Amino acid sequence: MAPTDESGQVAPQASGSDTTPPSQPPAGFDAAPGARMPRWLPRAMVLAFALFGVFQLGTWAFHQLVGLLINILIAFFLALAIEPAVSRMAAHGMRRGLATFLVFFGLLIVVAGFFTLLGSILAGQIIKMIEGFPEYLDSVINWINTTFHTDLRRVDIQEGLLHSDWLKRYAQNSAAGVLDVSTQVLGGLFQLLTVGLFSFYFAADGPRLRRALCSVLPPARQAEVLRAWEIAVDKTGGYLYSRGLMALISGGAHYILLQGLGIPYAPVLAVWVGVVSQFIPTIGTYLAGALPMLIAFTVSPLYAVWVLIFVVVYQQFENYMLQPKLTSKTVDIHPAVAFGSVVAGTALLGAVGALISIPAVATLQAFLGAYVKRYDVTDDPRVHGHRRRGEGARPLTRLRRLWTRTRERTGTTGPGEKSG
Fold first, then answer.
1. Which pLDDT does position 387 carry in this prediction?
2. Taking the complete model, does pTM exceed 0.85, yes or no?
3. Interatomic CA distance for residues 225 and 211, integer angstroms
4. I want to staple 346 with a disulfide (CB 3.0 to 4.6 A). Which of 5, 79, 83, 354 is the partner?
5. Which of 216, 249, 271 is the last residue of a domain?
6. Which of 311, 307, 309, 313 is nearest to 294 (CA)?
């Protein structure tokens, strides 16, 4: 008997032996049966994997070449620093290559002579310190025995030091670290050679480099690039001028201290402190203060302590007062911006960032300043920080007027005044 529906009529049956109705696709599924993958999807997946591979390769290459890029950045700013001298010599008819060589040769002679003189002084003082070490040790032992009522002897201290495990481990580590020190020295010399070569090419081929850069830009962009280059040269020169001025002030202050304490070679040590503390970032301060302390120790251990205290105090004065003021005048940036740029540069690139951060920020600020539209500032005390002339009386003037009105009301007059 055929099945009937609710109205009593015979329900239609599907043809074929299978009477089970076909399963319906779930709700929200619009794909037709037998739909194929879009043709663009495989190509999109291949492109995505290719871009990811290129990104990974570029990241790896950047990490491998970051040392070279930093050296090139240092060389570029060094070339900007010597650009005025090279251009001035080239303007008098000298070839730029020869002018650049003469500038570098002069710098090399000055640096080599300075460090040779300091090396001879340091070697003599080290020999003197080694010869007088027993006397220094006896004076320290006598001070300890007198102050703390102890009974120390130099012989016992020397024997304990010679037979100590610490000295043996130190000797073993020093012997094993000779190869590492040699490797670091060779690496440092290679970096100096790399920076020197790149800076020489940047300075000697400056016009050619600018022509190559401008040849791929439209005329309007060429003018902007050349203006940015001139700003960078000006700001870098101003930064070096401020560093030289701070080196002069620092050297003078330390010379007064060393001369007052009677430390030998005070002029040379003052020049050392001024140059090293200003032109070697981050660790320059410690290198600069270590040598005067060492020489002062040969005179008296107490003098070495005084030198240490003065170096620390002067460094704080220079970091928070002198450097921001001089930098803001020579490089034309706010002291807070100068201090913040040094902190940011140190965090990003370490010592190199601390050295080039201020001229880089000053160049960027001066270049972008031409594209910022400025307006006249409203006359408001909240903007100018004080009342302008004619906007209101000063407190002393208002007090004088109040005193005059009070006298007029009471009828009193001063000497030489007529009563109303």
1. 54
2. no
3. 11
4. 354
5. 216
6. 307
Contact 202, 76 (CB under 8 A): yes
Residues 364 and 237 in one domain: yes
- CB within 8 A of 345, min separation 6: which ones? 352, 353, 354, 355, 356, 357, 358, 360
| Residue 105 lies in domain | 67-216
The residue type at 398? R
Of 351, 369, 387, the residue at which a domain comes to its end is: 369
Q: Provide the phi-psi class of 223: left if phi over 0, else alpha when psi is between -120 and 50, else beta.
A: alpha
Residue 411 · residue 419 · CB < 8 Å: yes
Q: Is there a single domain that holds both residue 149 and residue 264?
A: no
In this prediction, residues 15-20 reach a mean pLDDT of 49
pLDDT at 47: 92
Domain presence at residue 236:
yes
Burial class (CB in 10 A: 0-12, 13-18, 19+), 420: exposed
Q: Are the C-beta atoms of 80 and 239 separated by less than 8 Å?
A: no
